[in-house]
């Protein structure tokens, strides 16, 4: 087992002195970066600034116990920590402020995130995993307050899993589960539910996690007393303190942000508890100051009185650190030893200012150089069009007057020049067009790539393997198909695990995991508390550490509890790191037609709109669902798979090749051929649509039924348009609200696939009422589309065009 900080601190005075001065130097550099960063915003060179000044000392102490293989899930003020663990340089800090799109210069996000959002790169350029045990890891920050907490739980729990689970390649992710996950959060954000849910779950699971609370007494302008029931979060958390002999709870350590020796001691103890005993620890850092206030969007003088401001100046961590260094002396072999003189510290201060300024200038010059090179490649080509339209020269003059130029200004110039010279066919214009297309492709990659995987393991690349049936294939309940397929999965992939409410002991509420916990153990087939946000967070964190988790959210309606994490965190992982990190989590849920308002909703439109970046798979049967699990476990991107809740007791023929067959994403299936109208649907509604299509046949209408199967990605081969080309009529049917998922589907078919060209009638959508479904079978009938609704509305399309052949029903 790896030793801890406590066990390794046997050093000479010279080494001790060097460590102290290095910490002071880093702290001063970080502070100067904060000061200079604010000035860069106020002078207009950067858009926004939020900095870590005042938190330097606790972050330096935390960095001392942060080892290779460890992970941080943090708050966007941790610049000193990032500097200390070599995850940040002065240059990359300012490159992020300027939104430099170079991964080399700004490796955290390639300019996609505002400053203070840190990340290390977990992936090689081809999307394969690096050896995460050979580096210090920072999971990509997000801005939503406390949003980093659920992911922290999963990062920590992965260490618990790796104590018992190994697989081919697992040595890249863990050394026997000895890693700690470090979380950081501002004190005001501890008022958020995500904080409490995460800490509660961590205390129940007993995972190696250290949470640092930076307590500066305010949430922007709102003082702590208005944030929580108690101003002292340690006092509030006292009930979480573990008792001797109990395997529950956490350790709570309170320490002052300006007390350097106490901070070292606090983090050494925290590491010891977490790394050797796998106990979660809260380090409550009090007396934190904010020398420049919350951010560049305002001044803290507006809400802090003179007494508070004077106290912050006196108890500034770096000032206290300097005072401690100057007052420190020790007698060794009869000789008094000191750490540094005032002159030596002043020299370090000056060096820090120069270091910050040099790094800032280098970052600005590199950023400007990229824009200058773009301008120099474009402007002469625009100038060549002066003779073709007088307005071109006007636009060039306006462009040249700009004091500071950005990429958008260059593109605006080009597009205006092309607009006013439209209709002109000249070599000069064609040359500009060619250059514009070339640079536009580059900027498309800079700003829009990696929303989904771009590696060889992206789900679209997974080969389809059809289910195999034989004379001995049995007709079984759908839940048996999914259960037996999971059995194959857990046997085939030791890195796969599943967890959720009622998932383990009883084998999920629909028995789709019956007997799995008994066979594969409670670590891999696990029950959780009722806490959807952190079920999702467990999955995100474990997926970022190389495991293949399946996070089960009991019902589709309950996805709303974790939609924020899906939208702000999981969906953006690859995008916000420009392919630097990934979290191939599978979210398992079940939904659609059950009973009542809270158990039969269909919030698909919300999921689609808020979770771009996650595949949305909507199988019509449990065999199809099983195939999607088999597909996604070979892929490297996240997905939500919505099983049909009313399908577990319906009979299906069980494939002979369980665990092997796959269902391709982005591939529709024509389940009934027809010639008069195309009916497009998905999920549980498919059965009702099929019934309606059979009824329409009796009325002389030949309906083609298409199961979408995959909402994201959507019909990659544009097969639906081919169906509409044949039938000339289109009906989109689902049980979402009006204009919800059907609106998305219509946009895909009519706009992207250009199927409007083939329509002889207006396209029709049939959806549920806008309210939630009322209770019981009658509530379902009157709330959601019934066979009668579908037959009547589709029949009316034909009545409108040929009333003699199709006389009105009503």
TrEMBL record:
<dbReference type="Pfam" id="PF02780">
    <property type="entry name" value="Transketolase_C"/>
</dbReference>
<dbReference type="InterPro" id="IPR029061">
    <property type="entry name" value="THDP-binding"/>
</dbReference>
<keyword id="KW-0560">Oxidoreductase</keyword>
<feature type="domain" description="Transketolase-like pyrimidine-binding">
    <location>
        <begin position="476"/>
        <end position="650"/>
    </location>
</feature>
<dbReference type="InterPro" id="IPR009014">
    <property type="entry name" value="Transketo_C/PFOR_II"/>
</dbReference>
<dbReference type="Pfam" id="PF00676">
    <property type="entry name" value="E1_dh"/>
</dbReference>
<dbReference type="Pfam" id="PF02779">
    <property type="entry name" value="Transket_pyr"/>
</dbReference>
<protein>
    <submittedName>
        <fullName>Transketolase</fullName>
    </submittedName>
</protein>
<comment type="function">
    <text>E1 component of the 2-oxoglutarate dehydrogenase (OGDH) complex which catalyzes the decarboxylation of 2-oxoglutarate, the first step in the conversion of 2-oxoglutarate to succinyl-CoA and CO(2).</text>
</comment>
<dbReference type="GO" id="GO:0016624">
    <property type="term" value="F:oxidoreductase activity, acting on the aldehyde or oxo group of donors, disulfide as acceptor"/>
</dbReference>
<dbReference type="InterPro" id="IPR001017">
    <property type="entry name" value="DH_E1"/>
</dbReference>
<dbReference type="InterPro" id="IPR005475">
    <property type="entry name" value="Transketolase-like_Pyr-bd"/>
</dbReference>
<keyword id="KW-0786">Thiamine pyrophosphate</keyword>
<dbReference type="InterPro" id="IPR033248">
    <property type="entry name" value="Transketolase_C"/>
</dbReference>
